[in-house]
Amino acid sequence: MTELTNTALNRTEQLGFIDLSARKRIESLLDSGSMRELLTPFDRLTSPWLEKQGIVPQFDDGVVIARGKLDDKPVVAAAIEGGFQGGSLGEVGGAKIAGILELAIEENRKGNPTAAVLMLETGGVRLQEANLGLAAIAEIQSAIVELRQYQPVIAVVTGPVGCFGGMSITAGLCSYLIITREGRLGLNGPQVIEQEAGVEEYDSRDRGLIWGLTGGIQRFATGLVDAFVDDDVSALATSVRDCLAAGVPTLHRSDDIASPLKRLQQFDTREQIDAQRARFTLTQGKTA
């Protein structure tokens, strides 16, 4: 084996989960050889709206869906390609995710326990498809709420796009949330907040501020996610399997809103937020 080949192999072994495409992310988490992709690029299922606006579409519309197994248990999986239109969701991509979740619901109704894993690398609704994207996200959320009664719905947020907009609400509905240091989770993205409230309120170029408020460490410390892991394929796979083994939570995060709401109502919005104050506000009075 040549030195060049050895170097290439070492570089491949060092790739983290973030470096993988949406398709490879699913493949890396599922049991070896169990992945069966549905509606592949060969089906040429593209958005009918992008070309009309001068945007080159993608044959999978930036969303990969598949069936497979985790620890020999049936699961469905979906991953959003953050490199295509910022991971934004439109009519087709959203319908694919909703469809795979509805497939899992039907399997559970038939007595075949089937969980779901969602890899969310998305800025939310695709602006070019507006209401169609919103409708698709609503269908995804409805499917999650039904499916999570049967089996866990596990969301993974890694980076570099993060998870924002309507899809951050979607993430909050999942049974379990896993995040990395590079991952971010928030309702509105930094540039949107800066545009609407001004740079004095939120400087989208201040990476320390942004990750300090919405990054993986902060979200885990404040209890908004369930697991914090390194950007490592093996670590993520182990965390997903642990969530699957934990089963359906006794109480879903989205059903436990009274305590977080009370803490938020005590926050003084007249003062500039920072990571330390945000963490204190979201954790005060919280039991371990």
Fold blueprint:
Blueprint: H1 3-13, H2 22-29, E1 36-38, E2 63-70, E3 73-80, H3 91-109, E4 115-119, H4 130-147, E5 153-157, H5 166-173, E6 176-180, H6 190-197, H7 207-214, H8 216-221, E7 227-229, H9 233-246, H10 258-265, H11 275-283
Parallel strand pairs: 3-4, 4-5, 5-6, 6-7
Antiparallel strand pairs: 1-2, 2-3
Helix pairs in contact: 3-4, 4-5
Kindly summarize this structure in a few lines.
The protein has 288 residues and is α/β, with parallel strands linked by helices. The chain has 11 helices and 7 strands. Helices cover 41% and strands 13% of the residues.
Structure keywords:
288 residues; alpha/beta; 2-enoyl-CoA Hydratase, Chain A, domain 1; 7-stranded mixed beta sheet; 11 helices; disordered N terminus
Question: In words, what does this structure look like?
Answer:
Helix 3 runs parallel beside helix 4 (130-147) and helix 4 (130-147) packs parallel to helix 5. A 7-stranded mixed β-sheet has the order 1-2-3-4-5-6-7, sandwiched between helices. With 288 residues, it is of the alpha/beta class. The chain has a domain at 12-185 and 225-249: 2-enoyl-CoA Hydratase, Chain A, domain 1 (Alpha-Beta Complex). It is globular. The longest helix is centred in the middle third of the chain and has 19 residues, at 91-109. The chain contains 11 helices and 7 strands. Keywords: Transferase. Pfam families: Carboxyl_trans (PF01039). This is Biotin-independent malonate decarboxylase subunit beta.
